[in-house]
Amino acid sequence: MNVDAMPTLHPESRDLVGSVFEAVQGIAAEFPRSLYLQRAREGGHARELWDALAAADLLAVGVPPEFGGAGGGLTGTVAVMEALARAGVPPLQYSLTTFSREAILRHGSDQQIKSHVVASISGKRKICLGVTEPEAGTNSFAARTVARPTADGSYRISGQKVFISGANESDHILLLARTAPPGEKVGRRKGFGLFVVDMSLPGIELRRLDIEWYAPENQYEVFFDDVEVPAEALIGDDGLGFDHLLSCLNQERVTVAAWALGLGDYALRKAVDYAKVRAPFGTPIGAHQAVQHPLALAKAEMEAARQVMYSAAAAYDSGRDAGDEANMAKLLGSRAALNAVEAAIQTHGGSAFVYETDVITVWPMVRVLQIAPLNNESILNYIGERVLGLPRS
Asked: What digits encode the pLDDT tens for the residues 223-250?
């Protein structure tokens, strides 16, 4: 990536992005794509990758210096995620933990920041995200997981979350739950609490989902059976949990764009290398426009999406809401990455479906990013209504 070609980045940000990419090269040498895929097949964890991130101080990126972090804001976080994905080793746990600690940084107490954000810098704290439910889907207002306040200030949580990535290796979960009484209307600023819950508490049960993708992280259903959590598990104000969560979603969407674009670049580089040497009729297939043009278009689309992504990160770091840019970054980044992977598959032909070729192995993860953490149709609704001013869908 040509960092100097990023007009949205200040000189110090360019230096940060460049140093992040350099550090990740060393990490990828210790934990290459081959080991990443091996862990995925074994159903294991990428513990060495997480430890290497901590040792290189990359988990400190995005945390303000006053809390012991390296600073860099969202721009730095995005650079870490993009660099890891470009190397073919994107840790979903990194995205989840950095997003969750952003909510705690914005709305948590000093003690919560110390316990969860500061602890994450050394890699000791891993946090997963508990929002999606079987009956609610994208409509989080329909969530049924409840947190009932008790007389002593604690809460008792009952309910179910689904598609919770990394739940088995996370020590805490950032959980959205209803705190409003049954039958009471809820909304963005009413009726929800945002909690950081210790996953070792009695009453929490995990069930692994059988999902086909090539990553050393798995998804789970998480059940809460009258789980008692202390008052200090509540982040911010009771009732404003949904609002607290939404205030951090832009950070997540830009980071997901980095995840997608990095993988798209990984697939595109494999396709270009293959097209240079594959010559069944004597001439490399990359010389033929039918092969060359889809790859060239994928490159152009990804570079354009990358500009939007870093522009969104810069806007977020400047203190703006950056909702428009963040949503566009996720939409454009995920679509451009999918086009790149599709072009890579077509370039490789039948060889793309051989596991050892490591092309089809990229597709499921990039494809799921069209759906999660927010589907692209919902983002188009956002752009239509919030940016273009069209009637609400």
From this structure: 999 999 999 999 999 999 999 999 889 9
